[in-house]
Every structure is written in C-alpha cells, then in structure tokens.
User: What shape does this take?
Amino acid sequence: MPTDRGLRVGLVGAGFMGRTHSNAYHQVSRFFPQERGADLVAVCSRDGAKAQDFATQWGYGGHETDWRKLVARDDIDLIDIATPNDTHAEIAEAAAKAGKMVACEKPLGRSLAESRRMTVAVERADVANMVWYNYRRVPALALAKQMIDEGRLGRIFHSRFKFLQDWTISADLPQGGAGTWRLDAAVAGSGVTGDLLAHCIDAALWLVGPVAEVSGTTEVFVPERVHALTGKREPITLDDASLFLARFANGSLATFEATRFARGHKALFTLELNGEKGSVAWDLHDLHRLQFFSYDGDGATRGWRSIHVTDGDHPYMKAWWVPGLQIGYEHTFVHQVADFMSGLRTGTKTVPDFADGLAVDAVVDAVLKSARSRSWETVENIEQAARLEGAA
Ligand code: SOE
Assistant: This one.
C-alpha cells in the first residue's frame, strides 16, 4: 500500500459503518490504481480498548478516545464520521473549521437545522465533503441512472421505493446504547424515516429530481422500551414505520415505505421507476441485476429483461473480476472512495455531498411534519435556506 502518497484519514467511530469505510480505504488503490489510496492515520472511539482493537484489526496507525484530538492533528486530511447521529454535527463543524475534508455517514444531522449547520460549515470552509449514501454506487443503480440520463425511460411518471426490516419487532429489545441507539430519539433524531427512507429519498432525488411536496404517516408499534443506559422503561418517540406520497417538481409521483416491522425482511431495499419509454426495477437482495423494460422495437418480443450488471462496460465493473462474476455491498463503499479521490484528483465535486444530504433531510423533515399535521407539506427549498443561513 503506497501510504506515503495516500489520503490521510482519521476515522471517528469503530462500529459497523467504520468497518465498511475502513475496508474501502484499504481496497481502493488495489482496484482503482489511478487513485492515490489512503493512509489510515488514526481511529477514534470513546471506548479506548475498542479503539485499540479496531486500529489493530483495520491497520490504523494509532487510536484516540476524543475526536477533538483527531481534528487537531495536522497529519490528517479527511475526518470520516461513522458515529451515531447525535455527534455528526459537532464533529463535522469542528473538522470543517480546522480545514479538514469531511465525510459523514447518513443522515447528516438529527434535524434539518443540524444538517443545515453542517452544510454551511463545509461550504464556508470550502472543504471537500461527501455523505455515505452508498447505494448510489451499486453498479446496477449507476446503470439505471445512466439510462435515465440517456433518455431511455423518457419522462418518468411513477416510482415506488421500499426499505423493509424486521429487527425491532420484539418489545424486549432495549433502546439506547451501542447496538440500539437507532431507537433512541435523542441520539438518532428520527426512526426509519431518517435511517432507511433516507436511502430511498436520496435515490429518488438522484434518479427522478427534487421533491416538491409530501403527505406522510408514521407509527410507533412499541411505545415504550427499557433504555440500555438507564435501565428504565422510557417512551419511544421516533417512528417504527413511515409511509409517504410524493409529488416531484417535474410532476412525477411516488410512494415510499420503510419499517422495522416487516417480518421476514432484513434489509429489503427495492425501487421501480416507470417512464414513458421504459421502466426499471431493482432489489438489494439481487443487487447485481437491473430489470429493464423498453417499449422500443417489435411488440411480439417486447418484455422485461434482466440485465446481469457484471460486464466490463457496466459502471465500475471493469475494475473488478472478469465479466459474469458478481460483487456486493462492501464494493459500493470502495466505489464511493474511488469517486471521491477521483474528484480530488480532477478538481470535480463528488456527489452526494453535504448539500445533497441536506436535500434528503429537507424531505425527511417534511414527511415527519406531514405525519404530525396530517396534511400535505411543502419540502423546504434548501438551497435558499443554506444561503440565508450562510449569510447570517
Ligand atoms: C439499519 O439497520 C441500517 O444499518 C442502516 O442504518 C443503513 O444505512 C442501511 O444501509 C442498512 O440498515
């Protein structure tokens, strides 16, 4: 690994996402040799033993227990935030202020206000930034985007997005603490809307365009859980399930559904888009396939086809094995790092950046508002909001 020329990374967070990012930093220059690779300088976790073990296992040069020490180091270029949501804003703001590049796990903040502060911070500091909406880098979805941009679907009338899980059905599952912070509103901000629907919303904004208004409803199926840190039963104030209808600025319509109560489903992210000239459909459990229907050609042989997205002319695939051999979830993170490094090398912006993450959070905010008001809500114009905040 050419560490002397690598992007010097300081990772905050030694959990599941920290592992996906670390793996990507290790793999990037092996499969994308035109990129500079990464030098894993230090990892930070509040738990010193965990930080040390993580550093050993993933090849970080050192470890810290206070992220402020990472931010203060002058041998780090990029601060990568892979911590629970309640720490994203503070770390991102401090890192940007210190002139570091910033990568942040999704969602950006716990609220639209936090996400806006973070976006203003990186834009004011003029530092490279990105949000880890990794599913954009599934080759089959990148191919769908390419086909939409080429006009193969024509005008998109409908789309539908789902992200289904079942891991919180048991009422005995606690909230809070290391494994279950996603159920603690003070830490997570929102429930499935910010955690799972955020992926669907990011895909929708990317593939279809800006969302103008939404009508949503949410539900809490288990209203109280023992808090892992206090040992007391405490109310659950975030959404176990979230459904909404969307009208896009371009007149397109969509439905969205996410839950952690769909028995039998662990991480079923699916989407389908129906356009004037064709349709596409994709399923995370069969992630290397893109289903495509084209209205072109002869009616007798017209039909849905299943594209096995593993050929050298498919997005990202040339970098991997030989045609026909599949890749998986972890590769999406490698692709994101490769694109970020390519952006740094060529002076182009990598998306999704914080402004894109803020756009997702504006939709999340409108959905939650709509669930409370039981009426349609307009999605805030975040470009204007960020500008106003920046000027304040
Ligand atoms: C939740 O279980 C979770 O890990 C999300 O936080 C991730 O963003 C998603 O990719 C998989 O599910």
User: Anything to note?
Assistant: The mean pLDDT is 96. Residues 139-286+288-327 form a domain with the Dihydrodipicolinate Reductase; domain 2 fold (CATH 3.30.360.10). The chain has two domains: 7-133, 139-286+288-327. DSSP finds twelve helices and 17 strands in the chain.
